[in-house]
Write a structure and sequence with these properties.
Largest sheet: 4 strands, antiparallel
Number of strands: 11
Strand order of the largest sheet: 1-2-3-4
Strand content: 15-25%
Helix content: 25-40%
Radius of gyration: 22 Å
Shape: globular
Length: 266
């Protein structure tokens, strides 16, 4: 973990099947962990990115090559219950995403706050499904935690309507922009483009709606002349990790704006 710019240099070290090539300077997470670009010593020599703690504890000591059989088996198990298109399956995957994936825009307000899903539900969709059916679930209802700071578990969850959900959130704050009041969600629609959580995240950082609107406008202007590094990688048939490695080694010129890399359009 990097603190005040200090971190242990893992370049050249090997962890399991992963050899560290250098620091992944374009990536971090909510805890400001250091990430490292690694090359797996498997047949495909796959390049991946891993955080310091992950490498040291050995949780992911390969690129995934040793886990393919397990993932295939897991996929087969999901298909067995035949409910991947059921609304409850989407509710279940949504809970897991915001509680365990730092990529979710809602992660800071769920997983980032320590909210988890009980093992009974997290390990087995059918356990969650059976609880939902026997506890009043109907199409159109949403899952609600009785204790807002508590976990997702049978004792702390219930099914309510969207109207009740909004009533429970009647204390949502309003913010002023050019004489009008907006919730963060309404302002995202007003800006016409940001992903869910974009405005809320910045408001919590102390930004005004005027500052957020200016930032969004500037970002859109940049995107007319540049393409995100991820898009560049997709267009050129390489992984995002490999693209970041090209940036680090000086083989690709980019513009760094707000912590994101952009490549000038040709």
């Amino acid at each position: 973990m990097a603190r005040n710019g200090k971190y242990e240099d893992l370049t050249g070290k090997t962890f399991g099947m992963l050899k560290v090539l250098g620091r992944d300077i374009g990536k971090t997470d909510i805890s400001h962990s250091c990430f490292w670009i690694c090359e797996c010593q498997c047949r495909d020599k796959t390049i991946v990115s891993r955080r310091t703690s992950t490498l040291k504890c050995g949780n992911m000591s390969n690129c995934g090559c040793l886990n393919r059989e397990r993932l295939i088996k897991q996929s087969d198990n999901l298909k067995k219950h035949g409910k991947t298109n059921n609304p409850l399956f989407h509710i279940w995957t949504g809970m897991r995403y915001r509680c365990y994936s730092s990529k979710s825009p809602l992660f800071p307000y769920y997983g980032g706050k320590g909210i988890r899903i009980c093992d009974e539900w997290n390990d087995d969709f059918m356990s969650f499904y059976n609880w939902a059916i026997s506890n009043g679930y109907e199409k159109g209802l949403t899952i609600d935690r009785i204790d807002y700071n508590g976990d997702y578990c049978p004792k702390n969850c219930r099914w309510i309507t969207n109207a009740q959900q909004q009533q429970n959130k009647s204390n949502v704050p309003l913010y002023e922009y050019k004489g009008e009041l907006f919730t963060t969600g309404q302002f995202e629609k007003f800006l016409n483009g940001p992903k869910r959580g974009y405005v809320l995240h910045r408001v919590k950082r102390g930004m005004t709606l005027e500052q957020i609107a200016d930032e969004w406008t500037e970002q859109k202007e940049i995107e007319t002349k540049y393409v995100p590094l991820k898009k560049y990688a997709e267009d050129n048939g390489i992984t995002i990790v490999a693209a970041r490695w090209k940036v680090k080694t000086g083989k690709l010129s980019v513009r760094n704006w707000k912590g994101h890399y952009y490549v000038r359009k040709e």
